[in-house]
Design brief:
Length: 625
């Protein structure tokens, strides 16, 4: 949700609130950056101690997890202060402008309500944790105090944003939110079936949040919070406890670490060097610009771990060349989105890590299993790019050419990093989290020596920005975790599992697989990647195992299906972001993207029907017996 800081200031005292919010946001930005830096050092040194000195640091994992919680909640507070959360406003376009304005502003009040609820719940949790210690004797409060700090800063920042409008809009939107809350309370008191009322309110909040364009993390959070407040058998402290528990896992540290490594390589100038090298090598081939897009996305997927980060890294440097070469920006944006779906299976994709974590599947095995499916989809897209593309004049795309030696060095440095990540995880030398810490150190030190573009000031900004981005991404995971807990209490996943299991048993496992692809694609478009996986993977994977599917084969298909929804028109959040990065309109991208979308669907069905494409390499590497 974007915040226009230039909005006319007519609310008394807003200047003071704005100053307070800016100071607190600066504080959380610094704390988040320091926590990220300290986490890299702790994980990196713990690996060195264990492998070289054969003396593990017993407290390292607990400290790393506490730093992780600090990073997430300070990061999301920073992102809230900056107005950096994204929502899906597609449905609002159907409404008159005046109504749309009020509903959009209501979403700002929703952020404030969630922040207030999380602040109160986390305060209760801090009081309970003061007398407790961890397994190694550290105070338990180190895991929950950052939640309280982040929630308070979010509360101040979201209140400031909610008040940044003309008084009539501010008051009207606040009254509307209050009326909805009152209606929920009345329903709770008068519902014919009181036992099911909390679940119905939770689902209603989720649907209204999606419709109103509330940022997805806060849609999930408000839905869970309403459940915890309306369920008398649960202490309200459980809300903050489940939000914190959603990200209190060592394996999830790989996400901010890989984001940091990819961002460091981008700041170092490696992305621009690699893209120019590929354009100069493939430019004269038919469809050369499209081939460059697919190959660049595949390469950077092995570095950053985030598909939107890949699109930003490649699109930011390639789209100007596309326009200079007089190629179709809309077609290229569609190919970017299709390539991002393909790249969901390329390690170290964030969603592969999330899938392994929530479904209890080896992350290293998932990394290996995704390689052949990704290569298959990449080949399909390369053929499509060559068939539908045109030749380009390299001199038009790059009037000033960089020396070839610099381009080759840039590609070599990145390739070594990709090989280091792949070899480390696949050979079992270290976990994905530990390898990602090494990738960060490599990206910063070697990148600095090779390119000399990553200055000290740029490095500080890098940690601040990645901490905020990681917090925003992982808060989605945290909120989804709390909602998943609420769904589990209501036995909703079990009911869905029973239904799908019955369909699979009665009509064949193929129908279950087809339903999986359809359901995950639809929810991937609405929920974004991590929440869709957190909610559905624990439900679907056990059923798939009962029906005889290999967990690696099924897991890769779920991740790819989720990616297909995320980058599909007309509501895929990833496609919206891609259009913004490429500077084109969604409505202009849909038509040229259809051909790539059909190719992805066909490729996904082939992967579903031929499991050996996914399981062959893991068997060869010893992950599958």
């Amino acid at each position: 949700m974007s915040i226009d800081s230039r909005t006319e200031n007519l609310i008394p005292g807003l200047t003071v609130l704005h100053s307070l919010s800016r100071s607190l946001t600066t504080l959380t930005a610094v704390i988040g950056a320091v926590a990220l830096f300290a986490d890299v050092i702790v994980v990196f040194m713990s690996v060195i101690w264990r492998y070289m000195l054969h003396t593990p640091i017993e407290w390292a994992e607990e400290v790393a997890r506490a730093l992780m919680v600090t990073l997430v909640f300070c990061g999301v507070a920073t992102s809230t202060g900056r107005g950096g959360h994204l929502g899906i406003d597609l449905f609002l376009g159907w409404l008159p402008a005046g109504v749309r304005e009020y509903i959009s502003h209501m979403s700002r009040w929703v952020l404030f309500v969630v922040s207030v609820g999380l602040s109160w719940s986390s305060l209760l949790l801090v009081e309970a944790a003061l007398a407790q210690t961890t397994e190694t004797g550290l105070p338990q409060v180190i895991y929950v105090a950052p939640v309280l700090l982040g929630a308070i800063v979010m509360m101040v920042a979201s209140l400031q944003h909610a008040l940044e409008a003309r008084p009539r809009l501010v008051i009207g939107a606040a009254v509307a939110v209050g009326v909805l809350a009152l209606a929920g309370y009345v329903f709770l008191q008068t519902a014919p079936d009181p036992a099911s009322a909390p679940a119905l309110l939770m689902l209603a909040c989720f649907a209204l949040g999606i419709f109103a364009g509330v940022p997805i993390a806060f849609t999930l959070a408000i839905s869970a919070m309403v459940f915890f407040t309306s369920q008398p058998s649960l202490p309200f402290a459980f809300f903050a406890q489940q939000v914190a528990a959603g990200v209190d896992h060592f394996v999830l540290l790989a996400i901010p670490f890989f984001l940091l490594a990819g961002a460091a390589m981008e700041v170092n100038g490696m992305s621009s060097r690699l893209v120019e090298l590929i354009v100069r090598g493939m430019g004269r081939v038919r469809g050369g610009m499209g081939i460059t897009t697919v190959l660049s996305m595949a390469f950077f997927s092995g570095i950053s771990g985030s598909k939107l980060a890949d699109v930003a890294a490649v699109g930011g440097v390639l789209m100007p060349a596309v326009r200079r070469a007089k190629q179709s920006s809309e077609d290229m944006a569609g190919l970017f989105a299709a390539s991002a779906v393909m790249a969901e299976a390329i390690p170290p994709c964030v969603n592969l890590i999330v899938m392994g974590f929530v479904a209890n599947i080896s992350i290293g095995a998932l990394f290996v299993a995704g390689l052949v499916p990704a290569a298959f989809l990449m080949l399909c897209l390369l053929v499509a790019a060559a068939v539908f593309g045109q030749r380009v004049n390299v001199k038009d795309a790059y009037p000033v050419l960089m020396p070839m030696r610099q381009l080759i060095i840039g590609a070599a440095v990145g390739l070594i990093m990709v090989l280091m990540i792949g070899r480390g995880v696949m050979a079992g030398i270290a976990t994905s989290t530990e390898i990602s810490a090494f990738a960060v150190v490599y990206a910063i030190i070697v990148g600095r020596l090779a390119f000399r573009e990553l200055t000290f000031k740029a490095t500080i900004k890098l940690f601040v920005d990645v901490a905020a981005k990681s917090g925003m991404l992982l808060f989605i995971v945290a909120a989804a975790g709390s909602l998943s807990y609420a769904l589990t209490i209501e036995m909703i996943p079990q009911q869905i599992a029973h239904l799908l299991g019955s369909i699979g048993s009665s009509h064949g496992s193929w129908l279950f697989m087809l339903l999986t692809i359809v359901i995950v694609t639809l929810f991937g478009a609405v929920l974004e990647g991590a929440p869709a996986l957190i909610i559905f993977a624990p439900i679907l994977v056990p059923i798939a195992l009962q029906l005889g599917y290999n967990p690696l084969h099924y897991g890769i298909l779920v991740v790819l299906s989720m990616g297909l929804g995320l980058f599909s028109p007309p509501i895929g959040l990833g496609l919206y972001a891609t259009c913004g990065i490429c500077g084109v309109s969604m409505k202009d991208v849909i038509r040229p993207m259809v051909k790539y979308w059909v190719i992805l669907i066909a490729g996904l069905l082939v992967l579903a029907l031929v499991p050996s494409l996914t399981t062959w390499l893991p068997k060869l590497m010893g992950y599958v017996t």
